[in-house]
Amino acid sequence: MSRTTIIDCDPGTDDAIALWLALASPELDVRLVTVAGGNVGLAATTANARAVVGLTGRAIPVVAGAERSLMAPFRFETAVHGQDGLGGVLLPEGPPLAPGIAADAIRDLLRGASPASVTLIGLGPVTNLALAFATEPALVDRVAEIVLMSGAWSEGNITPAAEFNAWNDPEALSILLGLGCPLTMATLDLTAQAFVTPEVVAAMEGRPGGACWRAALAILRALPPSRRMSFRGYPLHDPCAVAWLLAPRLFKGREAQAEVDCGPGPGRGRTVIDRWQRLGRPPNLKLLERLDAPGFFELLAERIAALP
User: Fold this and answer.
1) Among 50, 107, 237, 270, which one carries the catalytic annotation?
2) What whole-number percentage of the chain has pLDDT above 70?
3) Which residues contact 222 (CB under 8 A, 6 or more apart)?
4) How far apart, in whole angstroms, are the C-alpha atoms of residue 122 and residue 150?
5) Fewest C-beta in 10 Å: which of 73, 116, 215, 237?
6) For domain 3-305, which architecture applies?
């Protein structure tokens, strides 16, 4: 039985690949894609989401949302994703945006759902999701699980302390961490294990596929190697959150307690994750810690290559 799913994203190269993975997978019944301006600004992220969904041939509404965080403008990451957000990979223009605002569309879908029946996947700053629940908190009873690519228990990637999505809207992340529903987090420490090297890309290039697969390979070839990874390759962050829902056997994790630093200064956006119950507080998430990387890349290739 497939999960009714909302994907909130900010495409972004790895968001694009995560969207293709989700839309290729019968385990997920994606009803709605909502978009924030995180990686490269809302005009580009909405155009990219439309193009990515459109290339699959699926008629899924894409709704624009937050152009900035709850407290400040988003900081963009063009050094990784390029000025266009897709590393310069050109896709055909997708269908037009669906009318409305992301937070309203999220609430509308949840209102019509049964209790504990909707899975939410957050792949960017979670401003849209936070706005939906801050304005109608009773809707949390419709949520089966929230899965986020966010945070880190060690060092960050946008500041020494903070991961990019968490840093861009820590207040929004704090709202989600306090909802009390099942929540799973793929942090930088986990996504670093989805490590893309030239050898990984070369192995995947031998697999035939359609336009979505060819575009995904072009994006993988376009991404720059990471300084954090000694320029040997780069982590593929967002597809890890989707893969958890498709193949939990590929992951190991534990229950943990997390909060996010919303104060000013160099610690802003840090996710303080208590993996060993040192603070004695009840867990509020499942923390993904280990990934079977070969199994992950095989899943990614097998699914996306089957798309049109």
Assistant:
1) 237
2) 100
3) 13, 82, 86, 87, 88, 89
4) 8
5) 73
6) Alpha-Beta Complex (3.90)
Q: At what angle do helices 211-222 and 293-305 cross, to 10 degrees?
A: 140
Q: Beta strand 195-196 with 234-235: parallel, antiparallel or unpaired?
A: antiparallel
Q: Are the CB atoms for 139 and 131 separated by under 8 Å?
A: no
Residue 291 pairs with which residues in a beta bridge?
A: 251
Strand partners, 186: 149, 288
269 residue type, one letter? G
Predicted confidence at residue 1, as pLDDT, reads: 84
Rounded to whole angstroms, the Cα distance separating 150 from 165 reads 6
Residue with tokens 């909802």: 179
Confidence tier at 77 by pLDDT (50, 70, 90): confident
Question: Cα(156)–Cα(151) distance, rounded to whole angstroms?
Answer: 8
Distance CA 97, CA 53 (A): 11
Please check whether residue 125 is in contact with residue 10, taking contact to mean a CB–CB distance below 8 angstroms.
yes
Say what the pLDDT of residue 178 is. 98
Please, what is the end-to-end C-alpha distance for the chain in angstroms?
23
Supply 13's token pair: 């190269």
> How far, in Å, are 122, 128, 273 from residue 7 at the CA level?
6, 11, 24
Q: Is 81 a catalytic residue?
A: no
The string of pLDDT tens digits covering residues 197-236 is: 999 999 999 999 999 999 999 999 998 888 888 889 899 9
Question: What strands, in cross-sheet order, belong to the sheet with 251-260?
Answer: 62-64, 28-35, 3-9, 118-122, 143-149, 183-186, 285-291, 251-260, 271-274
| Residue 79 pLDDT exceeds 80 | no
How much is the average pLDDT of 22-41?
96
Enter the pTM of the model. Answer: 0.97
